[in-house]
Amino acid sequence: MLHMNVKEKLVSIVGVENVEDNNASLLAYSYDSTARYQALPDAMVAPRNKQEVAAVVKLCNEYKIPIVPRGSGTNLCAGTTPTEGGIVLIFKHMNQILEIDQENLTMTVQPGVYTKEILEAAIEVGLFYPPDPGSMHISQIGGNISENSGGLRGLKYGVTRDYVLGLEVVLPNGEIIRTGGKLAKDVAGYDLTRLYIGAEGTLGVITEAILKLIPQPETKKTMLALYEDLEAAAETVSAIIANRIIPATLEFLDQATIQVVEDFAKIGLPTEAKAVLLIEQDGAAEVVARDMEKIEALCKENRAFDVQVARTNEEADQLTAARRSALSALSRLKPTTILEDATVPRSEIAEMVKAIGEIAEKYQLNICTFGHAGDGNLHPTCLTDARNEEEIELVEKAFAEIFQQAVDLGGTITGEHGVGMMKLPYLHLKAGEHGVEAMRSIKKAIDPNMIMNPGKMFETTERKRVVVEQ
């Protein structure tokens, strides 16, 4: 619990209505979308502008009070769980699109803007913001930047990192810096913009972002390819890329996922298929038509027993929406849903899919697999029950093997969800001990009091808060 003196100072900065420490509020901000992680903060604080953010951070730094910047809580690595107490910083007042600059193809936004609002605002002026995490209708851009979120369009268009040109950041000492800008080229000093993207709130608080927009694609087509064999579907992914075709979306769903999603969405998905590829291409009409014709031929060459092309935009949107609903659909089956995102080079997709199946069988676990197959980012999802300690122990062993297998294949422990607390024990598999130590050194240099989202990404030393005299 915050000392009364600290609470009074917070109230003087943001107003009494923007500091909450009642039990209901503390409980609401004690967890994110990650199973099995929960901890109560001491308070929730909602600053109204960057000056208030800076004043709050300065106060917390003085008293060594942890700060957890939080968006909508869609995080899947326990990255926004206040595991060491302190305050949760939310951005319900800082939710404005500040500017759309059509001459420079940029949009300037505050951290609390929903991702889908950014896309819709871009489309209104004939432009396009490609990053589309599965939670885009409720996730906020500040969280997307902090986790370097991906999405279904990552194969062709890249991830959040590729669309952030500049940032405004409050440092852990309360100072405000600006990085980057509306520039195609800028090599003045260290690339601090990239440092803060994917930093998971451990190095400061993002208060503004300049995003890159691109021209809106002229048209799009969507296709479903059905398979009787998981590996044939995975091999098709490699074949498409090897033939120098880069679809906008190239998604993979195994049979268990298809059945659950169809039960949830009821749009006529082919539940008899062992695996499905959802493929979308966008761009100039003639290019889309040519690419989809080649893709259809490649699917059939690689043992697809049926290929279906969406006849209308509505039908295409239904298919994409059904894919986005996979996590929601799966979470209805068991009390606990653990969604992971092991990632491998695209050429190793078939091998990774096979390995996940073998590991699930080894531990007798129900693991469904879907994901962004085109960029190698798979989502093995375990349906379990956190109250069954015996099974949870097997789940942890299984995922440890899955992460190790991904790294052995030249991949990584996370492609888009982040490290947070959940994957903290596995970071060394990818980065190596010296790599982790280098990251820890950066953290200590920028945040010597370890107040910014402590306990995430690396182990941190125990903090002693300053005692406030009455």
Tell me about this structure.
The structure is a single chain. The protein has 470 residues and is an alpha+beta fold. Helix content is 36%, strand content 20%. The chain contains 15 helices and 18 strands. It has helices at residues 4-14, 23-28, 50-63, 115-124, 141-147, 154-157, 192-196, 230-242, 255-265, 285-301, 313-324, 326-330, 349-362, 389-408, 427-446, and strands at residues 19-20, 43-45, 67-69, 87-89, 97-101, 106-109, 127-128, 164-170, 176-180, 205-212, 214-215, 219-227, 249-254, 275-283, 304-309, 336-339, 367-372, 377-384. The strands form four sheets. It has a seven-stranded antiparallel β-sheet, with helices on both faces. A five-stranded antiparallel β-sheet has the order 5-6-10-8-9. A four-stranded mixed β-sheet has the order 1-2-4-3. α1 packs antiparallel against α3 (50-63) and α8 runs antiparallel to α13 (349-362). The protein is globular. The protein starts with a helix and ends in a 24-residue tail after the last helix. The model is unreliable at 465-470 (pLDDT under 50).
Describe the secondary-structure layout.
Elements: H1 4-14, E1 19-20, H2 23-28, E2 43-45, H3 50-63, E3 67-69, E4 87-89, E5 97-101, E6 106-109, H4 115-124, E7 127-128, H5 141-147, H6 154-157, E8 164-170, E9 176-180, H7 192-196, E10 205-212, E11 214-215, E12 219-227, H8 230-242, E13 249-254, H9 255-265, E14 275-283, H10 285-301, E15 304-309, H11 313-324, H12 326-330, E16 336-339, H13 349-362, E17 367-372, E18 377-384, H14 389-408, H15 427-446
Parallel strand pairs: 2-4, 3-4
Antiparallel strand pairs: 1-2, 5-6, 6-10, 7-11, 8-9, 8-10, 12-14, 12-15, 13-14, 13-17, 16-18, 17-18
Helix pairs in contact: 1-3, 8-10, 8-13, 13-14
